[in-house]
Amino acid sequence: xxxxxxxxxxxxxxxxxxxxxxxxxxxxxxxxxxxxxxxxxxxxxxxxxxxxxxxxxxxxxxxxxxxxxxxxxxxxxxxxxxxxxxxxxxxxxxxxxxxxxxxxxxxxxxxxxxxxxxxxxxxxxxxxxxxxxxxxxxxxxxxxxxxxxxxxxxxxxxxxxxxxxxxxxxxxxxxxxxxxxxxxxxxxxxxxxxxxxxxxxxxxxxxxxxxxxxxxxxxxxxxxxxxxxxxxxxxxxxxxxxxxxxxxxxxxxxxxxxxxxxxxxxxxxxxxxxxxxxxxxxxxxxxxxxxxxxxxxxxxxxxxxxxxxxxxxxxxxxxxxxxxxxxxxxxxxxxxxxxxxxxxxxxxxxxxxxxxxxxxxxxxxxxxxxxxxxxxxxxxxxxxxxxxx
Length: 389
Ligand code: TTP
Ligand code: MG
Fold this sequence. Notes:
CATH superfamily of the largest domain: DNA polymerase, Y-family, little finger domain
Radius of gyration: 25 Å
CATH topology of the largest domain: Dna Ligase, domain 1
Number of strands: 12
Shape: globular
Order of helices and strands: EHEEHHEHEEHEHEHHHHEHEEHEH
Bound molecules: thymidine-5'-triphosphate, magnesium ion
């Protein structure tokens, strides 16, 4: 029986926290930027979270003592970072990824595996799929990602590391060993400093050397770990992309072409965002209970206000009326707005009865109307029908 090779992509953002800061402050672009503890002119005791590629040229890296980073490059821009902002961007990165495939295993704030075996055909090839992902992230979020594509997770991850920054590299099944075998052993998963030392002592330098080593002897020396290393070195890694299909929130936001304080324009935007969210919720058979409105002022100050509804909903009118009320409750801010967004969260199974007081018939009718509108939009596009505010 011949099985079709899997197509696995590994995506990892480049210098994630530092890249966000460079994006948001043009003065930092092209400069060494270090995110981490306060260096206190070399007396600081914390560590480096990450740093820009410009700072890496000075030997600075994640987890290095901040004092050492300061000594290596005192003129670098040292910033404390903003975890809330990075989490928010991470959520938006994952939303983009979910537009390409549901088969995603999040690994960290800026990293994920994607199994695109079943979805790449929509974009013709795996390479075109991942080029589109990179382009979307760059266009929507102004950030660079690196993506490795391979028939398994281990090689996909090695490939994304290999092509950083802003890289895209596909390792075809027939080229897998040509790519893997010349690499130093440290590139392989699960090989730390100690194992590296032991391998070097045995005269083993590359992954190819491991593959060609005697398997029994290898297992004798390293036990189960040895056997595992030997299998991986043959380019065999059967681990599946462990899909986390629990969506925690859905959001959309809009940046105004020109900063605005016009409430009509804001209501129109809230209406449009509510429609998009409502449709996306129904597509995923979800209903949410908490609605959050996010506002960024022209000064870049960003605030968000949330409200939790008595019942879960995916209806446009509920989402719109509540987000409008949240906005109105902010009062007369006498400010200009740069961006407005809506998020809905707090989901659970929509088909479990929510409350004994729900007027089910009325709900069913509303649901039918929404589904009819969705169908028209699916067929004729997002602009086919517009609601009046
Ligand atoms: P990484 O993806 O490991 O690093 P990176 O994105 O900064 O750079 P690269 O281009 O090499 O991928 O980690 C993602 C973020 O996680 C990173 O921007 C900051 C944070 N982080 C820490 O806070 N401490 C750490 O030790 C590491 C490794 C990362
Ligand atoms: Mg990264």
